[in-house]
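Researcher: We plan to redesign the surface later, but first we want a full-length starting point. Tokens attached.
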């Protein structure tokens, strides 16, 4: 098992651009649906609370456009980084490079990029093909954002083009965050990602995955940084936190939970199946190990567990992941604005944190 001494880590929050904001899962509140006003409040609260970065997710059928929103937020923020999610295949890759370079220029170097390997709405693509497309997109995007010409004839991206005139603030490609649990996804991450993101799992399984990914990256002469995406429920006492967690799913019936999960574009992925397995292996109260609660996965696809506890328990759980090698965390909570304030007040002061620096 890999271990390391803890040091500063990147703490990020989540802007609910994909209509992923509730007080109770399954109960839609129009005031919490994705909008410029609501999502802007979340980002500005995260900056004011001291978070280092914030994930701006992407989903075609849900919520507002990620890139357009990020451009607006460039003028509304001054310190926090933006982790902009882009789905491979949504736009011509050189145009994506120009968009990302422009955003980073507007942000003064505060851009980070979350690469999503996903089918497009209405598209059916097998896993190996989807990840070949992801590989081609990541290769071209990195070349162009590094200021290098690209000449490639691929299955999905075929282009001969000079880099866009507009460059990033550093004239280098911003850090590429990428996650996936399948064999194909792991290979893509080992070859092309800067930060490998994982969804919640037991400490033992997280350690095993980190060791595997380190070995894979070393075969390509590379090294990876590691990130962890989870929900969080923090209150003054553990009992209050557990009560708040149960409130999130109290109005959710199983049929509605299945319908919510099925709406996700990645609802059949290896990672989503693993989240279901984690939930099924949990105790009757939904906890699969100390302070890791899987009940939240009943009403959402993807990331399906939450760190639940009082401030010191939550901070200690984060430290336990750091000891395994996790250096970047992306948290969310329901409702996102309220939980952002709680986490920022209660937990952030207990953590040594700062923006993650990735050296190519």
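Model: Full-length starting sequence:
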């Amino acid at each position: 098992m890999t271990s390391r001494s803890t040091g500063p880590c990147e703490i990020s929050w989540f802007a609910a651009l994909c209509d992923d904001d509730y007080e109770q899962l399954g109960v839609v509140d129009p005031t919490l649906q994705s909008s410029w006003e609501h999502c802007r409040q979340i980002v500005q609260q995260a900056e004011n609370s001291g978070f280092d970065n914030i994930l701006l997710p992407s989903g075609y059928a849900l919520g507002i456009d990620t890139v357009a929103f990020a451009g607006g937020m460039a003028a509304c923020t001054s310190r926090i980084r933006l982790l902009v999610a882009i789905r491979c295949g949504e736009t011509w890759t050189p145009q994506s490079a120009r968009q990302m370079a422009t955003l980073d220029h507007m942000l003064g170097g505060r851009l980070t990029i979350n690469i999503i390997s996903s089918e497009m709405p209405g598209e059916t693509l097998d896993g190996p093909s989807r990840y070949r497309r992801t590989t081609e997109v990541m290769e071209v995007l990195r070349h162009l954002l590094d200021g290098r010409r690209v000449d490639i004839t691929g299955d999905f991206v075929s282009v001969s083009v000079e880099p866009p005139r507009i460059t990033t603030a550093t004239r280098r490609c911003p850090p590429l965050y990428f996650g996936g649990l399948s064999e194909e996804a792991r290979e893509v991450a080992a070859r092309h990602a800067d930060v490998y993101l994982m969804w919640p799992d037991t400490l033992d399984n997280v350690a095993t995955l980190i060791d595997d990914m380190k070995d894979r990256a070393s075969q390509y002469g590379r090294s990876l940084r590691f990130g962890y995406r989870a929900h969080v429920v923090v209150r003054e006492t553990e009992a209050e936190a557990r009560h708040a967690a149960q409130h999130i799913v109290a109005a959710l019936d199983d049929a509605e939970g299945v319908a919510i999960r099925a709406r996700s574009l990645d609802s059949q992925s290896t990672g989503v199946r693993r989240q279901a397995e984690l939930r099924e292996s949990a105790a009757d109260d939904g906890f699969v190990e100390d302070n890791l609660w899987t009940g939240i996965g009943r009403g959402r696809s993807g990331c399906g567990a939450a760190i639940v506890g009082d401030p010191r328990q939550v901070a200690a759980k984060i430290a336990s992941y750091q000891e395994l090698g996790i250096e970047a965390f992306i948290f969310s909570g329901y409702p996102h604005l309220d939980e952002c304030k709680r986490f920022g007040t209660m937990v952030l002061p207990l953590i040594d944190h700062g923006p993650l620096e990735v050296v190519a």
